[in-house]
Amino acid sequence: MPLRPGRNPLVVQFWLWGLDAASGDLRNFAQAKHPCQRGSSIYQMGAWSVHSMGLALEKKPQLYYDRPAGLFYRCDQMPAFDGQVSGQPIHRTEGLLAVHGIILEYENWISSIHGPFYREKLLAGKLPAKVRREVQAWKHWMKNDLLDATPSALRMELSGAVLRVHH
Q1: Does residue 18 belong to any structural domain of this protein?
Q2: For the packed helices 92-114 and 10-23, what is the interaxial angle rounded to 10 degrees?
Q3: Phi, psi dihedral angles at 46 (to 5 degrees)
Q4: Is 124 contained in some domain?
């Protein structure tokens, strides 16, 4: 079953990262934690980093997810998490494909620490409305490779741009 158009599983992922930051899990996974003038700290995980304002994938091409806008950008230079985003907006599916592997790796790590039903328990509780609306999209995204659910024309367009980051 493909991800429904307009759905954004990163809404749930960022909410979960907020819980992970509060519990110390995000820091335990990160290689470094840096202060930022705006919002939360920046958690650096090798080729990617996360902050309450977005996610940066620092492989070529560089990719930035602007959380408030819900948009992905391909960038020549990585924007600061506390600054303006400049770059070429890209289709959300392309961005989700690019970050799927790194987020899946992180979620597998969380599962190895807390058990396979930890996220399920968190998502069964009282959730902010915006998060609750995206839970099914997030669950689907965690269980499937979006490339399998992507229309063939877009899949062909993305085939050269798909980034699979495996550590």
Answers
A1: yes
A2: 30
A3: 70, -115
A4: yes
Look at residues 140, 136, 64, 141 and name the one whose alpha carbon lies nearest to residue 97.
Answer: 141
**Structural domain count of the chain:** 1
Mean pLDDT of all residues in the chain? Answer: 84
pLDDT computed for residue 40 by the predictor: 80
Predicted TM-score of the model (pTM): 0.83
Residue 146: the pLDDT is 59
Task: Evaluate whether 11 touches 123 at the Cβ level (below 8 Å).
Answer: no
Range of the domain at 103: 10-158
4 located within any domain: no
Query: Does some domain include residue 2?
Result: no
Residue 82, SS3? coil
The arithmetic mean of pLDDT across residues 21-41, rounded, is: 90
Rounded Cα distance, 95 and 26, in Å? 22
